[in-house]
Design brief:
The protein is α+β, with helices and mostly antiparallel strands. The chain has helices at 2-25, 29-40, 99-111; strands at 55-60, 63-66, 69-72, 79-86, 92-94, 117-125, 131-136, 149-154, 181-186, 197-204, 221-228. Strand 1 and strand 2 form a beta hairpin.
């Protein structure tokens, strides 16, 4: 009888040890949830293969001089500048057939590899400390933040035979429209701008070239720093 009880006791102890060891190795509910959360984190596989050169320029005779920085004083409704755009990152571009034709030939050479589009970003700080940051992808966007800066887009190739032509209207914009120049003018609340103005031109070929916050993240861009009188411009 005693031997039987002793054997039963040993058997129960052994079984309890096995159950305890097994439960120790099993994942808890919290561990399983954490594992699922880790597995659900998306991996950003974005790679930009668009290396199209682009930049702002000023035409001087039969050549273009690259613009990286200018200085201005903001006066309501006065021009800050008209900036030519050209698909290059060279300091000087020599024109062979005139600006409009050279622009078209160079742009189409890059566009044949991908469905290239062009856009712009403007960034500055208000006297309140608020950062204004917005994109211009088509003429309708030029009305954004109009109270601070008035912006205009021009297609010099479509108007190559005209001595004078106006900016691109939204109802004129189509897939064949080319942005060859960008004009910036101070507006009625430009006195609220309390920093340098960063004007960036970029090219893109898909929505993947923008982060969720609409910030451009591609390789093809150039920034013109507009130094405003009275504010640092490092």
């Amino acid at each position: 009888m005693k031997k039987g009880l002793l054997l039963l006791l040993i058997l129960l102890l052994f079984t309890g040890c096995v159950e305890k060891q097994t439960s120790k190795n099993e994942p808890t509910k919290k561990e399983e949830e954490t594992k699922e959360e880790i597995e659900e984190i998306p991996v950003d596989t974005y790679v930009d293969e668009n290396n199209t050169p682009i930049g702002f320029y000023q035409q001087e005779g039969q050549s273009l001089k690259r613009l990286d920085r200018i200085y201005t004083k903001l006066v309501v409704e006065e021009d800050i500048g008209v900036f030519d755009i050209f698909p290059s990152n060279e300091e000087t571009v020599n024109l062979n057939n005139g600006f409009a034709y050279d622009y078209y030939d160079t742009w189409m050479n890059y566009k044949q590899d991908r469905p290239l589009k062009m856009g712009f970003n403007i960034k500055f700080k208000r006297i309140t400390g608020e950062i204004i940051n917005y994109n211009i992808l088509d003429p309708s966007h030029t009305f954004d933040q109009w109270e601070y800066l008035m912006n205009y887009l021009y297609d010099g190739y479509a108007n190559r035979d005209k001595g004078f032509f106006s900016h691109i209207e939204n109802d004129e914009y189509n897939e064949n429209t080319l942005y060859t120049a960008f004009k910036m003018q101070s507006s009625y609340q430009s006195n609220e701008i309390a920093s340098k103005i960063l004007l960036t031109v970029f090219t893109y070929d898909s929505d993947d070239d923008f982060r969720d916050d609409a910030e451009y993240r591609g390789n093809s861009s150039a920034t013109l720093t507009i130094c405003v009188e009275g504010y640092e411009c490092d």
